[in-house]
TrEMBL record:
GO molecular function: hydrolase activity, acting on ester bonds; nuclease activity
HAMAP family: Nuclease_YqgF (MF_00651)
Keywords: Cytoplasm, Hydrolase, Nuclease, Ribosome biogenesis
Similarity comment text for this entry: Belongs to the YqgF HJR family.
Primary location group: cytoplasm
InterPro entries, alphabetized: RNaseH-like_sf, YqgF, YqgF/RNaseH-like_dom, YqgF/RNaseH-like_dom_sf
Cell compartments where the protein resides: Cytoplasm
Role noted for this protein: Could be a nuclease involved in processing of the 5'-end of pre-16S rRNA.
Native organism: Algoriphagus machipongonensis
Annotated GO biological process: rRNA 5'-end processing
Protein name: Putative pre-16S rRNA nuclease
Amino acid sequence: MPRVLAIDLGTKRTGLAVTDPLKMLANPLETIETFKLIDFIKAYIAKEEVDTLVLGLPTKLNGKDNEMTPKVMAMKTKLEKNFPSQKVELVDERFTSKMAMQSMITMGSKKKDRREKAGNLDKVSAAIILQSYLERQ
């Protein structure tokens, strides 16, 4: 069964998460350098069936665009061009970084580890975006 791949786009690093084959659970996958994103997805889709790409859409609290919103919209266009067989969907990502940090604290991650492993925060944020998407389906 095809999976859903979620993307928490950042200017330098991008967090990725993926569903299980039954599309019930969101699991953190990887944190990569943003400039490697398209190549990473191509390689991932070559080995795993993916039918949907979910991209976190950052906005301000009032719902208006923030400085990252245009970059996400440009990435959406790039994803649609590079992956015409996959649906590309946007999901509100407000508060996901805070939720990811709280989740890491709850799981017992030490402050030093959270600081040193910022990549964990990115992929946990992607998993939260993906779980939100799954719950809406």
